[in-house]
Amino acid sequence: MSSYDVIVIGAGPAGYPAAIRASQLGLKTAIVDNFRGKNGKPALGGTCLNVGCIPSKALLDSSKHFEHARDHYGSHGISTGDVSIDVPTMIQRKDKIVGQLTGGVAQLLKANKVDAYAGTGRLLKDRQVEVTPMDEGEVQVLSARNVILASGSIPIEIPNVSFDGKHIIDNAGALDLEEVPETLGVIGAGVIGLELGSVWRRLGSDVVLLEALPDFLALADADIARAAHREFKRQKLDIRLGTLVKSAEVKDGKVEVTYEQDGEQSQLTFDRLLVAVGRCANTAGLLADDCGVSVNQRGQIEVDEHCQTSVAGVWGIGDAVRGPMLAHKGTEEGVAVAERIAGRPSHVNLELVPWVIYSEPEVAWVGKTEAEVKSEGVDYRTGSFPFAATGRALAMGEPAGMVKVIADAETDRLLGVHICGANASEMIAEAVVAMEFHGSAEDLATICHAHPTMSEAVHEAALSVDKRAIHRVN
Ligand code: FAD
Ligand code: AMP
Questions:
Q1: Same domain membership, residue 291 and residue 260
Q2: 197-244 residue pLDDT tens
Q3: Residue-wise over 219-233: b if at least 16 C-beta within 10 A, else e?
Q4: Ligand 2 pocket: which residues have CB below 6 Å?
Q5: Strands 29-33 and 115-123
Q6: pTM of this structure
Q7: Per residue in 72-112, pLDDT tens?
């Protein structure tokens, strides 16, 4: 039986960095993964690289170019004639990027001397791992001093709406459509629904998002959600709130969706239906009955604040455990667990994991919303600044959105920073750094920001906490 210091099950953005870091720290490490790429071959990188973060951003970029060429180039004096989209070429570009990155992970693992097994891992008792090869080969059992469970997540399927891979699809299906559907229904106006709905709307689909909750983007700060909602409406992304989908049926090549709104049932018909109602931990079959690791009612592996499970030497990270289902959260946990196994102190601050929605405008935030701060009874102040008042946003043709800063009224410590606007995904990093260093609104307000940049809006929003903004009336 081969034995290791560390075996990682799952090579997504949580698992593969854990394996690389463990090996860097001198630990003999193996990783087991069972993801198959589009070509049917093993593909490392998990959901994120294969059917999540990266391919969605590739298509968001292609569709943004298309929309800008069609609708916005004229105002720059650029004429293009008729603009058309060749969907197979766009998908090939996306596949190439995915291939580059998943191949890169394989190379990184090899260069770091991590043994990679293409197979399905199952945790047995005493930190043994059974590996069933994906293709031919014998089942083998490996042993380890430490096992890191990083099996990720899978799309949630709702009752009476079954994926058929063609008409009723999940994220993987929506990243691989062969043509632009005339009509696309999306169940769930969360992060994934908004991003993938935006891709196909930009390319010409009539997109309707059916969202059960009465509030738009309930997780985000209400002012930011309102600003984003306004922009999406302007783009004719049809978002119907308080709309609970009850069932969907494929009839004559179309999908008939039955939903309930204000107590009444109605129907809508679409060419394609994307189900984007969230993801659940992928732990079915991962744990032998006697392995000792507990999972909660939602199927998540139960871990403490250091990602330690109920069994010594067995750890859980990423989407398979509590906390936001975000790639960078899993990566930080993976690295932190490897450090702890090597006897070093490390910790991930789940309070300061940045959220990003890569719509146009982008939405990003870190820390608490105003509603959260209020409900905690904290005395706070807010400042905000619209991008329309910054020169760079106007020069870029991206005036939509705003920055909002929330700070403790007494200490001025930053409690939350919320951005809706172009490049919000990049700008939020400044706020994360400031908050990790326990910074104040005053800190952001007194740091020199380059002119003209979008980040000047962060500066001005921080100034406006103290009613000192220069380019708006306080
Ligand atoms: P995963 O990436 O799911 O990887 C788990 C891996 O483990 C998979 O390869 C799986 O096949 C393998 N596995 C599972 N069970 C076993 C087993 N028993 N044996 C062997 N292998 C196993 N997050 C962001 O931060 N930014 C984004 O922009 C973003 N965009 C997204 C867009 C979409 C469309 C989707 C669906 C998700 C997006 N996410 C994004 C979320 C992100 O993809 C996940 O948070 C992230 O992939 C979780 O990483 P993970 O390593 O925990 O799990
Ligand atoms: P997220 O968790 O960000 O992926 O968002 C998923 C969204 O889907 C949430 O906002 C849910 O409220 C929504 N949702 C879940 N089930 C349904 C349903 N049956 N009909 C409409 N929306 C739903």
A1: no
A2: 999 999 999 999 999 999 999 999 999 999 999 999 999 999 999 999
A3: ebbbbbbebbbebbe
A4: 158, 187-192, 210-213, 243-245, 276-278
A5: parallel
A6: 0.97
A7: 999 999 999 999 999 999 999 999 999 999 999 999 999 99
Q: Which atom of ligand 1 is nearest to the CA of 317?
A: 52
Amino acid at site 40: G
Task: State both tokens at 62.
Answer: 């292609």
**Ligand 1 proximity of 367 Cβ (cutoff 6 Å):** no
User: Which residue, 419, 422, 427, is CA-closest to 392?
Assistant: 422
Q: Which domain holds residue 232?
A: 168-277
The residues assigned a catalytic role are 451
Average pLDDT over residues 348-354: 97
Cβ pair 373, 418 in contact under 8 A: no
Kindly give the distance from the C-alpha atom of residue 247 to the centroid of ligand 2, in angstroms, as a whole number.
Answer: 14
The one-letter amino acid code at 238 reads D
3-class DSSP state of 443: helix
Residue 150: CB within 6 Å of ligand 1? yes
The CA distance from 42 to 467, in Å, is 56
58 with 180, same domain: the answer is no
Q: Is residue 84 assigned to a domain?
A: yes
φ, ψ for residue 278, nearest 5 deg: 115, 175
